[in-house]
Design a protein that fits this description.
Elements: H1 5-13, H2 35-38, H3 49-63, E1 68-70, H4 76-80, E2 84-86, E3 95-98, H5 104-109, H6 121-134, E4 140-145, H7 147-154, H8 157-166, H9 168-192, E5 196-200, H10 206-231, E6 235-240, H11 248-251, E7 258-261, H12 267-274, E8 279-283, H13 285-290, H14 293-305, E9 310-313, H15 323-334
Pfam families: URO-D
GO molecular function, one term: methyltransferase activity
Protein name: [methyl-Co(III) methanol-specific corrinoid protein]:coenzyme M methyltransferase
């Protein structure tokens, strides 16, 4: 059976048989918008929807990844909650320069942002709409920042982690509030034409939170997000950074998502624990940045042989990653039978 790129990815997310795994790079935290691509555009690729859509198309064309994904950063949601953002340039990624709140109560005191009107959210929605109008057979992946990572982009992370212990109910209330916004933003992205929503929560690691806090503060929010996304008919991908091995039992409670892991996680062992849950990953991004194409091909081959459902970079890609290495990865997957 011949699959379009969209049909193949949607089939995998629905746990159906395909000819081979898709090879994707979702966008958001896991974006392939490298300097080699961005330098061909004006510096408004984070704020102009037309340019953003063109960059997404250029990424697919110049790397071979089988999707279109926007945005190319993790600062969109924090900005609408008052955090100051430096959008950077072709050689520097956007970053938070000032937190939007000094206490938890200040986050909830703000009116809940409107994804259709506030900050750069409308830019993302317009870019998705642009892409959807031009690409029927290519999956469009929208991206949102996970609740913990969003919270620690609005308020000082060290203070936030302290409050997890001192004021857990207040923390849960804030996370629930932020998740309500993220649900709205995700739903708006699907309405604009996104086929899949990728949720990246790099701060919600086992190393930082520990297993008990992960179960208490993270699982309910991610479960709600995935459930709400599923109700729209779109697919969901959840990426957890770091060594998520100790979190696998908890991650089983998130029903309806494909789980994406960092390179430190043994995906074969993860699959054993997770059973029928599709697994995505986890090509080492340092190797993609500085390694030889032959090593990348070998890494991809090992993942394919293990039956990993979706092949993708293990985490965020360096802006300096050579296109030849990304092409080596995508060609290796496309040529596998």
């Amino acid at each position: 059976m011949n699959f379009t790129e969209k049909a193949r990815l949607k089939a995998v997310l629905a746990k159906k048989q395909v000819d081979r795994p898709p090879v994707i790079c979702p966008g958001g935290m896991m974006s392939a918008a490298t300097t080699a691509i961005l330098r061909n555009f004006a510096d408004d690729f984070h704020s102009n929807p037309v340019v953003m859509a063109e960059v997404a198309e250029a990424i697919r064309l110049n790397t071979g990844f089988e999707n279109l994904g926007v945005p190319f950063c993790m600062t969109v949601e924090a900005e609408v909650f008052g955090s100051a953002v430096d959008l950077g340039n072709a050689g520097v990624e956007p970053c938070i320069t000032e937190y939007g709140a000094k206490e938890l109560a200040a986050i909830i005191a703000r009116p809940l942002p409107d994804p259709s009107n506030d900050g750069r959210s409308p830019v993302i929605l317009s870019a998705i709409s642009e892409l959807a109008s031009r690409h029927r057979d290519v999956p469009i992946i929208g991206n949102i920042t996970g609740p913990i990572s969003l919270a620690t982009s609005i308020i000082d992370p060290l203070w936030f982690f302290r409050l997890m212990r001192k004021k857990p109910e207040e923390v849960l209330a804030v996370l629930d509030y932020l998740t309500t916004y993220l649900v709205r933003f995700a739903r708006e992205q699907v309405a604009a034409g996104a086929d899949v929503i990728a949720i990246a929560d790099p701060t919600a690691t086992g190393e930082i939170l520990g297993g008990a806090n992960f179960r208490r503060f993270v699982i309910p929010m991610l479960s709600r997000l995935v459930q709400e996304i599923g109700q729209t008919g779109a697919g969901a991908i959840v990426h957890i950074c770091g060594d998520a091995t100790v979190l696998l039992g908890s991650l089983q409670e998130i029903h309806g998502a494909t789980l994406s892991f960092d390179s430190i996680v043994n995906l074969s062992k993860a699959k054993t624990v997770l059973g029928s849950i599709p697994v995505m990953g986890n090509v080492n991004t340092q190797m993609l940045h500085t390694g030889e194409p032959q090593r990348i091909v070998q890494n991809a081959g090992n993942l394919l042989a293990q039956g990993i459902e979706i092949i993708a970079p293990a985490c965020g890609i360096s802006l300096a990653t050579p296109q030849t290495n990304l092409i080596a990865l995508t060609n290796a997957v496309k040529g596998w039978r």
